[in-house]
């Protein structure tokens, strides 16, 4: 799976001073991926045009308005999906399930898995390297990293903008939008594959084992490092460029792994415990019904 920007030769000739339009071949390829044929083909081009694509010409229309529309309809449809499928689940877990299926990482994965990133129209100098790095790192986490990866937001944006384009083009047909997204996002994250955020899991683990946990970020501006102290002892640390949140999540994961190793827990035992805990919570709430 090698990302690339559509070749200039694939675009029709554009007059001097104007950006080239998307080729009919690319539009057809995108429709094939989506399983949806647009009445207004211009929406496909618009949904995949980043603001940087117009450089050095005058600014033009971008995907931002369609992204706004797609974000709203996806939140609504995913809320309906989890509410309907998990009939006795309380609001907290429902919110986590919804968020996991429409957050930046999940939608970025959809863009890559379906090859939509190949059609992104942009001229951002570092964006292609960021996409390549994300593709390489996502292979380590088959479902979701729960905060350990830093996907380029533009990948999420183009999925939302394409969904917004379909919503507009189909005259606001929610069922048609859901049909397309359900296929693109398959498999959806369910309760059995919903992991825990590493910081949350670390605090819960330390509470159960009566340990004190503290994150040290005082020297972030100098070292770009986050340290984890357990009962005052340095257990793990992590850095991640200028992204403090990613560094903190990775430090928490490293600390959690070390603590579990100390207690003789294997990763498989930990994963089983996470699922059991989630099912126990559901048992308290009532019988889980999942279609």
TrEMBL record:
The DRBM domain sits at: 197-261
What Pfam families does the record tag this protein with?
dsrm, Ribonuclease_3
Might you report a single GO cellular component term? nucleus
List the keywords (alphabetical).
Answer: Endonuclease, Hydrolase, Magnesium, Manganese, Metal-binding, Nuclease, RNA-binding
Chain ranges of the RNase III domain:
27-171
* Region Disordered, annotated ranges: 1-22
User: What GO biological process terms does the UniProt entry carry, in alphabetical order?
Assistant: siRNA processing
Annotated GO molecular function terms are: metal ion binding; ribonuclease III activity; RNA binding
Co-factor(s): Mg(2+); Mn(2+)
Name of the protein this chain belongs to:
RNase III domain-containing protein
The top of its lineage is: Eukaryota, Viridiplantae, Streptophyta, Embryophyta, Tracheophyta
